[in-house]
Amino acid sequence: MINNKIILLSIKLRRMSFYDSAINHGEMVKGITTNPIKNRLVKTMLRKSKKIINIVIEDYIIRITENTGKGLTSLRLLREKPLPLGFLENGKIIDEIGFFDFMKELVKEFGIKNRQVRFYVPNSLVIMREVDFPAGLKEKEITEYFRDEIGKSIHLPFKDSVFDISYLPAENSNSSEEFGIQSEIRKGTLFAAPEDEMKKYTEILADVSLKPVAADVEALGVYRYYHHIYKMNKEHVYLFVQLNVTSINISIFHNHNLEFLRYQNLDVQLKGWHIDNEINEINWEYVEDENQLLGIVEDQLIELERIMNFYRFSLKKGESMVNEMVILGDHPLVNIFNQKVKNQVEIPVNYLKGYVTKHMDREVGSQFIPALGLALKGGAKDAS
Q1: If you average pLDDT over every residue of the chain, what do you get?
Q2: I want to staple 115 with a disulfide (CB 3.0 to 4.6 A). Which of 43, 53, 284, 376 is the partner?
Q3: What is the CATH number of domain 9-375?
């Protein structure tokens, strides 16, 4: 089933766009750099086929959008399909043959054969680390530096990795002088994922007649969507809470920089799903009863407060704090969670809805927000 012709594809993904600007509208954003060589490669590939498929893969569902690379107004497809339980666990492919057969049928059903594909690295697989590196390194040397340091001074919870580095402009790097010798370092953020798991995804996508061209971090895609739809104060600190069916993802952004990232499995068990034909929504059925699920939601409120305090007092030494909170997700109790958060915190809380335009006149299911953020990757800001 899986051939070896795509064996270098995960490396190509790293070179092209494993991590990119959280906004990525063709502008340079402070604190986030993009590789012009990578960008030219991606743009060249995108010109060959304007139709781009954006795939969000969860343990329990696949969500897909298709656009022509020109923003959300060019959306042509918005679909979701429940994934049989047991194919994926915590983002890892457990049943490769089953997942391959499922994806092959999905490609046929949705009519997306031979499309180029952008997809998210599963949240459970993404590692983010703040790192330092010598300021004198050239751009190409930075990647080589970290390739050498991973496993030596930088330890990751997996043997081989795909990775990318985001770093501040040289003029913003820290410098110090000791004994008359000027020493400079630059600050950066390392994003990494296990290479063997990424290879499984890229190989299966390729074997079902799709063409993977970019892998992204979901927190960046959600932020990209929020920035696209809403006016933001770049001085504010934004905390995003994505409460999903089986997990919770928390990210904190300041001045367009991702400063905190956390994934947590909710330790719940799904037993099935059914479609509510009246509202055309998928309803998930848990082994746990509603009281147990409410208890899990209550636990997350406590954890959320702890993270806000950790950011304020440990990471920022009391110099800055979360100013606004954004809540989204496909958990059946996300609305209850949103209301409980509003009652608990004293900062503005925004429940995020899915819109195709900034005018908010075309609404789609909020469960598609991550896919919309992926569709915006590399596109110009919607002028409609």
Answers
A1: 84
A2: 53
A3: 3.30.420.380
Which residue is it, tokens 């809540």?
327
Please give the model's pTM, rounded to 2 decimal places: 0.84
**Selection from 180, 153, 151, 186 nearest residue 33 by Cα:** 186
Asked if 315 and 321 count as a contact pair (C-beta separation under 8 A), the reply is no
Residue 355's beta-bridge partner residues?
363
> How many CA atoms lie within 13 Å of 7's alpha carbon, on the beta-carbon side?
3
**Which residues, including other chains, have CB under 8 Å from residue 219's CB and lie 6 or more apart?**
123, 240, 249, 251, 258, 261
Q: Which pair of tokens denotes residue 317? A: 């030494």
First CA to last CA distance, the chain:
44
* Exposure string over 286-316, b if 16+ CB within 10 A, otherwise e: bebeeeebeebbeebeeebeebbeebbeeee
* CB-neighbour burial class of residue 181 (10 A; exposed 0-12, middle 13-18, buried 19+): exposed
The sign of the dihedral angle between the CA atoms of 71, 374, 365, 299 is negative
- 121 vs 215: CA distance, rounded Å: 6
Name the percent of the chain lying above pLDDT 90: 68
How far is the C-alpha of 16 from the C-alpha of 118, rounded, in Å? 11
- In this structure, what token pair is assigned to residue 373? 């953020």
CA dist., res. 125 & res. 252, Å (int): 18
Q: Is 278 exposed, middle or buried (0-12, 13-18, 19+ CB in 10 A)?
A: exposed
- Strand order through the sheet with 237-243: 257-265, 247-254, 237-243, 324-328, 349-351
Side-chain-facing half-sphere of 279: CA atoms under 13 Å:
7
Give the separation between CA 185 and CA 132, rounded to whole angstroms.
6
Question: In this structure, what token pair is assigned to residue 78?
Answer: 């918005």
pLDDT in tens, 68-89: 876 888 898 999 999 999 999 9
Pairing of strands 211-217, 116-121: parallel
